[in-house]
Amino acid sequence: MTEEVVDNEIKESENENENIVVSYKDVKKAFGDTVVLNDLSLNVAQGEKVALIGPSGSGKTTIIRMLMTLEQPTEGTIEVDGEMLWHKEVNGELLPADEKHMRKVRGKIGMVFQQYNLFPHMTIMRNCTTAPVNVLGISKDEAKTRAQEMLDKVGLGDKVDNYPSQLSGGQQQRVAIARSLVMQPKVMLFDEVTAALDPELVGEVLEVLKDIAAEGDTTMMLITHEMEFARDVADRVLFLDNGKIAEHGPPSEVIENPQTERLQAFLGRFNNS
Amino acid sequence: MSWDWEFAFEVFPDIVGAIGVTIGATVVAYLISLVLGLVFTLLRRSSFKPLSLLMAGVIEFIRTTPPLVQLFFVYYAFPMSPFTTGAVVLGVHYATYVSEVYRSGIEAVPTSQWEASKALNFSKAQTWQKVILPQAIPPVIPMLGNYLIVLFKETPLLAGIFVTEMLQVARIIGADTYRFLEPIAIVGFLFLVLSYPSALFIRYLEKRSGKLHGSAEKGVKT
Known about the structure:
The complex is a heterodimer.
Chain A: H1 2-16, E1 20-31, E2 34-45, E3 49-53, H2 60-67, E4 75-80, E5 83-84, E6 87-90, E7 93-96, H3 99-106, E8 109-112, H4 124-136, H5 140-153, H6 169-182, E9 187-191, H7 199-215, E10 219-223, H8 227-233, E11 236-241, E12 244-249, H9 251-254, H10 261-272
Parallel strand pairs in A: 3-10, 3-11, 8-9, 9-10
Antiparallel strand pairs in A: 1-2, 1-4, 4-5, 6-7, 11-12
Helix pairs in contact in A: 4-5, 4-6, 5-6, 6-7
Chain B: H1 5-17, H2 19-44, H3 49-64, H4 67-77, H5 82-107, H6 111-119, H7 124-136, H8 141-154, H9 166-177, H10 181-209
Helix pairs in contact in B: 1-9, 1-10, 2-5, 2-8, 3-5, 4-5, 5-7, 5-8, 8-10, 9-10
């Protein structure tokens, strides 16, 4: 009897955290002696849109690169959907995860890069279908249907037979977004996806991002220098400074009513320009 | 010693008859070097340190000893036919050079391509097969082609272990008739006739490899 009660209690406490999809616990990252992130603890809820802002070198890129397994945390753990990403628990001990485990967890994450990183040797269609066919194991036809749907969504449904080098930067970035969407990740990471674009091309990419955000279910973590965009899209804004979250909250607080001097100075730079 | 046209025409067919052996040895050795070179490169890049160090040692050892010495050693150490010995030894020797070519091609693929592959959750093998090698190899095809010509011109070494390729036939004729000038000159001429068009073809490949995938523009500039 008593055991059952205890069981129920555990289940209840799990239910409380059910909607947490990404969880950083006391994460530290150092390159040699340089500490770029310190004591980061952060929970991101299912469907939440989190914008990360801050000066370069503040650690915001490291946060999402660790989640994509491109950078290994020096200390601490990261959980995705309740499963540790970099570690495996064996007999109560934390051991480094093997590639098989990491691939399983990594499959829930997708990422769009500043430099698009399309595969130059593949057509737009193959850029979008190679991973679904080989990684998810779906049929070529289904992958094509899905890819076409996503490419239509980003407004490039007629470019399927082109190569990346034949598209503009903004178009390439939209393909990169579609390519990531076809994999249907639970969490999408965006690393300054408009930073490499000519100013007149920024708008088309932000529009696509807004559409995805409006559709709801996908959890998004975005690093951006577009403050207006962050304010429109994000549920929560994190201001990173010197490897720490210096301020956080809804955009109406963080962006419109900054508390710390550092954030005021940081935002001031955007208002002036 | 004076040049004798009549003699030259007389022995010409015999030497041409050996061209098949020369080409055969070249092709077999080259195929071995292309496949084994890639294996060398991948093992050299293994994240398992002892394996990668061992491979580095093996490559260095093969590359720093003369192919002729290797030919003699293998010929007298292993019971293989002269032709097999020759093709395998030259193939393995050239695999070490070819492996360097692959390495340069692989290192020219930007890190961002590896990262994109990870973000799409490709396995290691899929990343190599679908993303890295298809970008690494086309640009180095002209360099690989150069090694084909160099390897082709090295096949007379096989005369040392009695493979009846062109030079060996010329030497046999010389030994029989005490006339070496004409047979050797014919061998040189035949190599020229075969190498020169190949060199032209490789130059054509070089021009083409700049124009892959839609335009000459590749990658992204910051």
